[in-house]
């Protein structure tokens, strides 16, 4: 079966996490992704957080599946010529260097257009144009600058960053959408274009509901679904909401059987209005279904703390999985707090290809997250990440270089 992006060639100039997330997705959709790395060193993540000496780290292998690797010294004049040949051959250049690095290499937008007017140049940067546009940025900086950290955590504690890599992997996802959109527009215009995904913008996009709340707060001074209501204080900015549900259906994380020793023996419980009577039945508080202090969502809002304490008395008598089984019978929305160990061992995730076991020539078998986006006509086959420079000769030959030329370029240190 063919793949959605068959025939699309990507010059992958990405490193660390944000850019590689994007190009890995494009590779899974069938694009030929040629990762250009610095000879000898390669993407810095190859050697970061290593768990086996001298073997590509999981950090690298889990972000660079289905790609080919070529090593080119793009500061060497002959290396630059090889890169020019690649630019002429490819449809998209993806990069996430520090601001200005591509220009300093000599590959400005104007120069790239001269070489290939159909080329799409896609970049991740920390910030868009403005006071911070020259800054280098990593994940947690983006979470802080994009509004995630100030709105995450508990009211009486400091800002908190999330384990979900919304700055890096989140921005990589945004960039991938920009690239396929630009490819689609090119079918009409014949022209390439620049695509920019700034990490601050990507995080803010994911924090959209918090900008909604900022404006609600300014208008009303209070937000009744936040844990600060009714006894706490609201200030000028959206406060941290602990584990409160983001939408109009109040929720909280509650202890389950075993919580004293298992840090993940918890369940997320949502007191969805349509199933309120069923919740009352399950926890043995049938009278709450008709009591005017509890019967309506508005009446419940000032009493949420007590309500969740009562529900927790029930959840603490069940394991999170037992509670799930019972609550699901009644269509009560809830979810177990799953540890990474439990997720790694979950058979259904293996079955769908969301968790995949991959074999690697120097590392052996390891687990990875497969393609989370499933296309019925373009199935994903997860292939191991390339060794450094593994495909240099192959790609050079495809560009028309003879074995003698390849050998001379290697001697000159260009590849
Ligand atoms: N041959 C020769 N030189 C190469 C090369 C190659 N194949 N590939 C890269 N380089 C050079 C670049 O030309 C540049 O050199 P210069 O600074 O002299 O112009 C340098 O390597 C690239 O370095 P830089 O991007 O500055 O890396 P860094 O390790 O110092 O910074 C980041 C890393 C992530 C902070 C930075 O790249 C960044 O802010 N990127 C944008 C935001 C981003 O994606 N952040 C998230 C990362 S997960």
From TrEMBL:
Catalytic residue positions: 168
Record keyword Transferase present: yes
Full protein name: Formyl-CoA:oxalate CoA-transferase
Any Pfam family: CoA_transf_3
EC annotation from Swiss-Prot or TrEMBL: 2.8.3.16
Function, as annotated: Involved in the catabolism of oxalate and in the adapatation to low pH via the induction of the oxalate-dependent acid tolerance response (ATR). Catalyzes the transfer of the CoA moiety from formyl-CoA to oxalate.
Assembly notes: Homodimer.
Catalytic activity: formyl-CoA + oxalate = oxalyl-CoA + formate
Domain of life: Bacteria
Record-listed substrate binding positions: 247-249
SUPFAM superfamilies per UniProt: CoA-transferase family III (CaiB/BaiF)
Family to which the UniProt record says this protein belongs: Belongs to the CoA-transferase III family. Frc subfamily.
Pathway(s): Metabolic intermediate degradation; oxalate degradation; CO(2) and formate from oxalate: step 1/2
Record keywords, A-Z: Transferase
GO biological process: oxalate catabolic process
InterPro entries: CoA-transferase_III_domain, CoA-Trfase_fam_III, CoA-Trfase_III_dom3_sf, CoA-Trfase_III_dom_1_sf, Formyl_CoA_transfer
NCBIfam families: oxalate_frc (TIGR03253), PRK05398.1 (NF003809)
